[in-house]
Amino acid sequence: QVQLVESGGGLVQAGDSLRLSCVASGNIFEIGSMGWYRQAPGRQRELVADITRGGFSKYVDDVKGRFTISRDNAKNAVYLQMNSLKPDDTAVYYCNAVVKVLQLDQIHEWDIWGQGTQVTVSS
After folding, report:
1. What residue ranges of the chain have pLDDT lower than 50?
2. CB neighbours of 18 closer than 8 A, spacing ≥ 6?
């Protein structure tokens, strides 16, 4: 069984910073791409940033220059440093990982989601 546990959300004022963390645990063979998504009330879930195992990253236009995604493969972790937060960043943030596990001598690839962490930015 594999799970992702998120932390780091909270209530902050515009201009402040937060750092989200997501750690995978379980019988993991390898983790491929990891990413952060967010969903605000009345809006669809959107990709905020993702990063490959080799460290190549991309971002949605709205967060470029403000957010930085990183990962630590030894810890099976992915992070999202969020600076200069805006009220429009308010959402539930979910981490995601493509996880490979060994089961019955076969590699199975699962798309795993964290439980979500609330980020609220006041004006």
Report:
1. none
2. 8, 9, 10, 12, 82, 85, 119
Distances (CA, A) of 122 to 14, 25, 54, 81, 101: 6, 33, 35, 18, 41
Three-class SS of residue 75? helix
Side chain identity, residue 39:
Q
The distance of Cα 23 from the centroid of its chain, to the nearest Å, equals 10
The beta strand positions in the chain, using DSSP E, are 3-7, 10-13, 18-25, 30-39, 46-51, 57-59, 67-72, 77-82, 91-103, 106-113, 117-122
Residue 88, phi then psi, degrees to nearest 5:
-65, -15
- 44 Cβ contact list (under 8 Å, min separation 6): none
Length of the chain in terms of residues written = 123
pLDDT digits (tens, 9 = 90+) for 51-63: 999 999 999 999 9
